[in-house]
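Look at one such:
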Amino acid sequence: MNNFQGPRGIKFFLDTANLDEIRQGVEWGLIDGVTTNPTLVAKEGANFHKRIVEICDLVSKTVPYASVSAEVTALDAPGMLEQGKTLSKLHRNVTVKVPLIPEGLRACLQLRENGIQVNVTLCFSPAQAILAAKAGATYVSPFVGRLDDIGSDGMHLIREIAEVYQARPVDTQILSASLRHPMHVVESAKAGAHVATMPFSVMKALFQHPLTDSGLKRFLEDWDKVKDKVQ
């Protein structure tokens, strides 16, 4: 019997709406959830609500606690609240994603009062992360890659948020987002992120190292030389 009760170390989320990518991640046994949004779903040519349900069904079969972030499109708190409630009813694994703006935090407070998990996204400063925690966010999503794109240090933001959250313990988890390459994942874990969400290409790249490939090749070549002698 598998006694595995939850993630070991940092959680891995896939940032995608592609079912084949998610299915592969599930088969590897490495993903703890999925982040998605209307843009990613549109790329797949799928119906937004239907695809969210499909993703939840896929990941929850093997990871019952999996979080699937589904983003609202309204910009006012009442609209976000209405959309968030609708999304949460699609599946028990849905986490509603709202933007880190005043209306988004108002909606976060109300959604959390209704027992709905919330991912507050588009975080770019420790001050914003403090606000997200104050609003009761389940996750706050600092965008590492986008900060790097403008010449800032995205990983420094992860470290700063982790320091703040440790000084005044909160339940909000740091979800390191906009990860562009494997070192972003490694540095996120070192910096104190609870979750790293990444494209499928980045997750595949985590496996890769030339010495692994050459070592396996040599092992198989050596095995070919002796396998007939094994009784």
